[in-house]
Amino acid sequence: MADKTEAKKRIAELSEKLHYYNYKYYQESISEISDYEFDMLLKELITLEEEFPEFKSPDSPSQRVGGTVTKQFDTVVHKIPMLSLGNTYSKEELEDFDKRVAKGLDEPYEYFCELKFDGVAISLHYERGSLVRAVTRGDGTKGDDITNNAKTIRSIPLKIRGDNFPDYFEARGEVFLPREVFNEINRERESEEKALLANPRNAASGTLKMQDSAVVAKRKLDCYLYSYTGEDLPINSHEEGIKQLEQFGFNVSQTYRKCENIEEVFAFINEWEKKKLALPLDIDGIVIKVNSIPQQEQLGFTAKSPRWAISYKYKAESATTVLNEITYQVGRTGAVTPVANLRPVLLAGTTVKRASLHNANEIARLDLRVGDTVHVEKGGEIIPKITAVDLTKREVGSEAVDYITECPECGTPLVRTEGEAVHYCPNVKGCPPQIKGTISHFAQRKAADIDSIGERTIHLLYEKGLVRNIADLYDLTYEDIYELEGFKDLSTKNLLQGIEESKKIPFENILFGLGIRFVGKTVAEKLAEYFKNIDNLAAANYEQLIEVPEIGERIAQSVVDYFKDLENIDLIERLKRAGLQMEIVEKQQVKVGNALEGKSLVVSGVFHHFGREEIKEVIKQHGGKVVSAISGKVDILVAGENMGPAKKDKAEKLGVSIISEEEFQSMIEQN
Q1: How far is 150 from 138, CA to CA, in rounded Å?
Q2: Residue 409: strand, helix, or coil
Q3: What are the binding positions for Zn(2+) in this chain (predicted)?
Q4: Are 219 and 185 in contact (CB under 8 A)?
Q5: 407 labelled as ligand-binding?
Q6: Fold entry, domain 600-669
Q7: Does residue 263 have a pLDDT over 90?
Q8: Is 425 labelled as part of a ligand binding site?
Q9: pLDDT tens digit string along 77-94?
Q10: In the chain, domain spans
Q11: Torsion of CA 190, 194, 198, 204, to 10 degrees
């Protein structure tokens, strides 16, 4: 156990370093240390703070990892209302706004223009330089306290830089889910056959209201700040406020511009209408503000919005074209997606030839027919979609679309589960796109991470008959690959090296890569952690799988079905013989105490001071063993709120000691 004085000093030193590295990475895009080195410093800090909780500050970098569970979000009244802005889609109305400003001031003025980010408005409250509260906009007068979740957003400073700051101020901005992260989440959800997130804005909003901040931390939200507010702040213009936020270490998008007149404002609007697609998030317009704060005060407010600011919104770009044909794509899981093939049309800077139709229900909803004139928009500026049919141009005698009944790739009759919108091809092991999709899924970075293998290479390997499943990859020879079109000595060696390196990939990644239906990355990690190796998992029955935290009936049945298939068992054996990791490598446990030495504990319910995974880690650090099922071998059931009654009843019948979260804390603190 470390000396208290030394621990206090080291905690302060680690906190300062981590705040600095975090600032350099998120505000200056500079990585001064590797991710591994950063994680090791953070791990050391967390361990010290657990040993000496009296030295843990509210703005500690350890808050970034989350783990706090918030059952109910408190309502907070905004000290300064977060008013909405008046909107316009018309440049004529913008000119009228300018005339009203000129009339109201009767003196020279300038504008400050910013992008209108499509995210979730947030107000960050700082006292003596530290973040004390984060509140959503709500209805403009009051919002929800989401402080624990906001602390996980790495671009939000927990402690501001420098020392020249007021005792209290607010920084307001927009929380968003970067488009790249949104797409990555949807790819993972698709692999787990979960409903896709509708758009980045809704996803950001939903994430901020999640109860478990550890889950929020994994979503990688970001935040742009655009307002520095409070009472008697030493600034005379909005621009000075922005510069102050930058000096404090806030993430301010470098896309703003000060404009001398309305003509420069129009130029800014036109410029970003073309450049907006290159941004990491969506924008839906431009915010124009009178720059001078005394002039803002002079112009004042209406009942709903300031007279000194307005939002110019871009019209959603749409185009009209003709539906030439509907084709059908088969994905890795066998899901069949109809695709609209369009007469090429220019839309949002690109030529659009295709649009997703999602499923048979969408075709029926639109009453879509081949030859129809259709209206096309870019949903979220990314995926083209058909929004309507121009019935006035429909050809006489056109016929409704008959959705296909057989797989377009292998001819197998399609199935559609009751209550689901999607049709599936059940020929998992004989349908070419499903086979190639399974190999691509296995080779991806989050799974086996096989470098130098892409869709084109997989297609070539399949067409040559060299690969029909993932185990075949490990039988490939130099001659097999070298004879493929486009391959030479170096590229052949690179691919073989990538396949060889995949044998070092952790078991949980390989398990995800197997492509078991409904087993995404997170589920694979939980199953690997619980069962330790592939043999234990293969032998598990439905009841044992259900006992695993967060494993539901659908996942459990899918895992059971997978390991019932003898071809899958043979595949696993081949991967074992090839040398892949089929058991989890236990992480070295940091020992903090021995209060739970030799005891087996079950954790159930929701906790106030611990996240679910955090409390398990604390148990291990104090010598205990975490199990999920109640049995006569269990010593203690740590009971949180909303614990299932069945577990409690079983524990009582078996004489298992049931303790509360507070009793658990007392037990480990007495150590």
Answers
A1: 15
A2: coil
A3: 407, 410, 425, 431
A4: yes
A5: yes
A6: Rossmann fold (3.40.50)
A7: yes
A8: yes
A9: 898 888 888 888 888 999
A10: 4-65, 76-313, 432-578, 600-669
A11: -100
The 3 state secondary structure assigned to 460-479 is: HHHHCCCCCCHHHHHHCCHH
Residue type, 69: V
Over pLDDT 70: what percentage of the chain? 93
pLDDT band at 66 (very low <50, low <70, confident <90, very high): low
Q: ∠ at Cα 407 (403, 409), nearest 5°?
A: 130
Would you say 639 and 648 are in contact if contact means Cβ atoms under 8 Å apart? yes
Do the annotations mark residue 259 as ligand-binding?
A: no
pLDDT of residue 10: 86
Q: Does the annotation place 39 within a ligand binding site? A: yes
Quote the strand ranges of 466-573, DSSP E: none
Pair 253, 357: CB distance under 8 Å: no
* DSSP symbols for 124-137: EEEETTEEEEEEE-
Q: What is the dihedral sign for C-alpha 386, 392, 393, 398?
A: positive
CATH architecture of the domain with residue range 4-65: Orthogonal Bundle (1.10)
User: Around Cβ 551, how many Cβ atoms within 10 Å?
Assistant: 20
Across the beta sheet with 168-176, the strand order is 130-136, 120-127, 168-176, 222-229
What's the topology of domain 432-578? Answer: DNA polymerase; domain 1 (1.10.150)
Pairing between β-strand 350-356 and β-strand 283-290 as defined by DSSP bridges: unpaired
- Give me the pLDDT at residue 450, please: 92
- 169 carries a ligand binding annotation: no
Is the CB of residue 250 less than 8 Å from the CB of residue 157?
yes
CATH 3.30.70.2860 fits 76-313, yes or no: no
Q: Which of 17, 56, 116, 436 is flagged as catalytic?
A: 116
| 153 Cβ contact list (under 8 Å, min separation 6) | 175, 221, 222, 223
Q: What are the DSSP calls for 58-108, one per residue?
A: TT-GGGGG---B-SSPPEEE-SS--PPPPEES-HHHHHHHHHHHHHHH-S-
Tell whether residue 35 is among the known ligand binding residues.
yes
Question: What are the angstrom distances between the C-alpha of 544 and each of 397, 536, 537?
Answer: 59, 11, 9
Kindly state the tokens that stand for 412.
């197998």
Beta carbons within 8 Å of 414's beta carbon, 6+ residues apart: 336, 404, 405, 406, 407, 423, 424, 425
Is 113 annotated in a binding site? The answer is no
Q: How far is CA 532 from CA 440, 529, 537, in A?
A: 25, 5, 8
Distance between CA 477 and CA 474 in Å, rounded? 9
Residue 381 pLDDT level (bands cut at 50, 70, 90):
very low
What is this structure's pTM?
0.58
pLDDT single digits (tens) 535-574? 999 999 999 998 887 788 989 999 999 999 999 999 999 9
37 is in an annotated binding site: yes
621 φ, ψ (degrees, to nearest 5): -65, -20
The answer to whether residues 219 and 149 touch, using CB atoms and an 8 Å cutoff, is no
Confirm whether residue 144 is marked as ligand binding: no
| Residue 410, marked binder | yes
CA 376 to centroid of chain Cα atoms: 28
Contacts 24+ apart (CB under 8 A), 532-540: 532/583, 532/584, 533/507, 533/582, 533/583, 533/584, 534/507, 534/572, 534/576, 534/582, 534/583, 535/582, 537/511, 537/563, 538/563, 538/569, 538/572
3-state secondary structure of 411: coil
116 is catalytic: yes
Classify residue 61 as exposed, middle or buried by CB count within 10 Å of its CB (0-12, 13-18, 19+).
buried
pLDDT at position 521 is 86
